[in-house]
Design goal:
The longest helix is centred in the middle third of the chain and has 16 residues, at 160-175. By secondary structure, this protein is α/β, with parallel strands linked by helices. Helix 6 (160-175) packs parallel to helix 8 (195-207), helix 8 (195-207) packs across helix 9 and helix 9 runs parallel beside helix 10. The protein has helices at 67-70, 75-78, 100-103, 121-131, 143-151, 160-175, 188-191, 195-207, 223-237, 254-266, and strands at residues 2-12, 21-28, 31-36, 41-47, 52-53, 57-59, 82-87, 136-139, 141-142, 180-184, 211-215, 240-243, 273-275, 278-279, 282-283.
Length: 302
């Protein structure tokens, strides 16, 4: 049989936790066709002896929303084996856009080299798909852009009319392919967000069966209280919670705060609660790292 790519003699780590095995991997039409001792021919043969072979890695917390449009080769990801990035984190992202001048405040790496010609998540994903990025992409719906599109630069809690407007924008984004809703409460455009409005938006996310990803309100002086807030929001909204970069910022009390936050999570182990942080290079809670393996990533390209 003829294949497109044949990777020979690599040590395969399949992600299941099982012991690695030495085998060949054949690829045809962009998919793994066979694993084992393979005698077929291939257009390209890769000698992987003494090398590790693994499925693509998922970067669950990325801010490449805009830079993927500028340079879709995604070299910093590809050279590390990353094949899927989750973007739109911390309330930052490229949609929805009501005022292009304001929207730039919540887009990492914005330099106006790619004009903001779209409005909703659907338009952004179409623009991204046209750029043909080298990796698959899953986006969250960013709270910062929801507020900028609704309240502008006002640093106050949203009123009922404004909450209703943001809920509509969020529903549209989730239906157009967003995988969840993200917040970044330490940033100016989001600091005024009230627990009431966040719960209303998180509830929309839960109803759609999507993820609520959070950069908490205070990662230093009141880290545990900030984590308590998002746990409370997620519980009341009935949505799965993802706490981003959980560990508090370091100062003279940094170690104590780390213990407080970890103990808090330990007490909530039965909740639908995950985190994506590390401490001294090790997971804070074994088995608690959040990894998204979608059955079909929105707008993904093989």
């Amino acid at each position: 049989m003829s294949y497109d790519i044949l990777i020979r003699g690599g040590t395969i780590y399949d992600g299941s936790g099982k012991a690695p095995v030495v085998a060949d991997v054949a690829v045809a039409d962009g998919r793994i066709a066979e694993i084992g001792r393979i005698s077929g021919e291939a257009k390209q043969v890769v000698d992987a002896k003494d090398l590790a072979v693994a499925p693509g890695f998922i970067d669950i917390h990325s801010h490449s929303d805009y830079t993927l449009l500028i340079d879709p080769r995604a070299m910093s990801a590809v050279v590390q084996g990353v094949t899927l990035e989750v973007i739109g984190n911390c309330g930052f992202g490229c949609a929805p856009i009501a005022d292009t001048r304001l929207a730039a405040n919540a887009i990492y790496g914005f330099d106006n080299s790619i004009p903001l010609t779209w409005q909703g998540i659907g338009g952004y994903l179409e623009k991204l798909e046209a750029a043909r990025p080298a990796i698959n992409v899953m986006t969250l719906m960013p709270n910062g852009q929801l507020r900028l599109a609704t309240l502008g630069l006002k640093e106050r809690a949203a009123n009922q009319s404004e909450i209703a407007h943001m809920r509509g924008l969020l529903r549209d984004g989730l239906s157009e392919g967003a995988a969840g809703y993200s917040i970044g409460l330490e940033y100016p455009s989001e600091a005024g967000s009230s627990e009431e409005e966040l719960t209303a938006l998180a509830r929309e996310t839960g109803r759609a069966g999507k993820i609520f990803a959070t950069h908490t309100r205070d990662r230093q002086d009141h880290a545990a209280e900030a984590v308590e807030e998002v746990i409370r929001i997620a519980r009341n909204a009935e949505v799965q919670l993802q706490v981003s970069h959980l560990i508090p910022r370091c100062d003279h009390r940094g170690s104590l705060r780390c213990v407080e936050v970890v103990e808090l999570l330990e007490s909530r182990r039965r909740a639908r609660l995950f985190c994506d942080c590390v401490c001294d290079g090790r997971p804070v809670l074994e088995g608690e790292a959040w990894v998204v393996v979608p059955s079909r990533a929105p707008r993904e390209r093989a």
